[in-house]
Amino acid sequence: MTTIRSHYLPRTYLKHFLNDDVLFMYKKGAKFFDDLKISPSDRILEVRGENGLLNVGVEKHLYDPEIAGISSDDLENIFQELGEDVYDTVISEIETLGNGSPVPPSVKDPLCLMMASMRVRTPLFKKEIEEMDEQMKKHLMALNYERMTVEEVQQHAKEVTGKEITIEFAAEMRDSFINKNYAVKYPNAYFIKHALLLVEEHINIFHQMTMTICKSNNRFFVTNDNPLVYFVPPEKVNVYNPPKGLVTPHCEVFFPLTKNLAVHMTWKKEEEELREVSRQVIDAFNYNLSHNSWEYIFAPIKINELNIFIQEYIPYPFKFAIH
Question: Of 245, 243, 210, which Cα lies nearest the Cα of 112?
Answer without folding.
Answer: 210
